Amino acid sequence: MTDLLSLPLPELARWVVQDLGEPKYRAKQLYTWLHKKQVTTLEEMTDLPLALRQKLAETAFIPPVRTRLRLESKLDGTRKFLLEMADGNCVEAVWMEYHHGPSLCVSTQVGCRMGCRFCASTLGGLVRDLTAGEMLGEVYEVQRQMGRPVSSLVLMGIGEPLDNLQNVLDFLTILCSPEGQGLGYRHISLSTCGLVPGIRALMEKKLGVTLSVSLHAPDDAARDAIMPVNRKYPIGELMEACRDYFAATGRRISYEYALIDGVNDSPAQAAALARLLRGQTCHVNLIPVNPVAERDTRRSTRAAVERFARRLGELGVNATIRRELGSDIAAACGQLRRRAAAVEPCTARRAAAVGPCTAADAALPGAGR
Fold first, then answer.
1. DSSP letters of 270-316?
2. Which residues are catalytically annotated?
3. What's the pTM?
């Protein structure tokens, strides 16, 4: 069976002509139904002949993505979604409200194999990659729930996007195509823990997406201790790839730095970070690490975070302390999926995914990265 939602338009056209024996223009009709109208069933494609819809039903499918749980922050309007795939696996997506419009954080894998010591997403390892169609299903399902389209997208949910590169590239191609939703590449940020070959492959595509690098330490010794990926792609190699990415795309690099009490938050480490980034066109997002029940990391104090930011500023580094959204609904990624069993009473109550479950319906401790 062919996953219709995962096929970019040229591939869909080839399939329609070669496998179905239909005229090429049918592919454009099908693509419009899938990605502009974002239907969930073949029966809704009413301008396609019945015979063609029957043929599609025998050979193809639209991957279902349904909302199992929706939490809404009472503090800032952030919504967190637990989304279920056809095989029962779940991922998370987060809808965030900004003055420039809504932004959606999506997942790219079920689980993660990167092993970062402070992150809930990697607990339990990698289950499988998401297909391009399932990633699109995340976007389309949340937009249906919210009743409006997103204005920007961040690939910072569960999983490492560059560990699922081809599916992610197909996802971006379809989402940004003018025949589909038409979201601009410059409104997309892609987060990576530092897979250098993936950064270079993305660079060669010159899509214009913002590269967001999860750095979290200014030297190899400190980074090795919390991010196993650094042992394969050390900081020097990563920085070279980031400089090349900026040179090729003109897009400013964003560095994510999760501050962990007593691990990476000293003034000396701020100075080391400033030396590492000297000469780069970049921005540093400082993030007090989210506590995870299964981890022993503690977030830095507010005073330590502000001291770290102040020191970076004194040394000429553009840095901000990230605004925390959805703190009352554990909006950081990874933790809600792991506690899916605990929210069954809430999901059973709203099996049709109508109306939001609130934090009071399923109070959840801790959070991921």
1. HHHHHHHHTT--EEEEEEEPPP-TT----BPPHHHHHHHHHHHHHTT
2. 92, 333
3. 0.89
